[in-house]
Amino acid sequence: MSDKKNNVAGKVAAGVAIGALAGAAAGILLAPKSGKETREDIKKFAKKTKKQGEALLEKAKKQIAKKIESFKKAGKEINSEDYKKIVAEIVDSFKSSGEATGDAAKKLGEQLKEDWVDVKKKITA
Question: pTM for this structure?
Fold first, then answer.
């Protein structure tokens, strides 16, 4: 399961990185630093981006869990289409608030939609 979590975090981090990479890369590569210093800056940027992606994914999962819980409290059963709507709503809110770039939001949404099977198991358990 931890391999899957790392893979998911990697995908989300990649999405976040794509959005921020252009500006950061230009700043890092054009700065008057040595190659060693530049490589260190790139490593720090990559680690920071991965952490941001992981945090974004966890935040999204918590919001999804809250929405699912409200469905359950209302006595409604949640199906795949309901779940996809919840994911889309949360991803859109991240995009509009600036928490995720368009690419990062898209990858986040794709990953969360893929998690439906696991979510369904938890709901029915």
Answer: 0.65
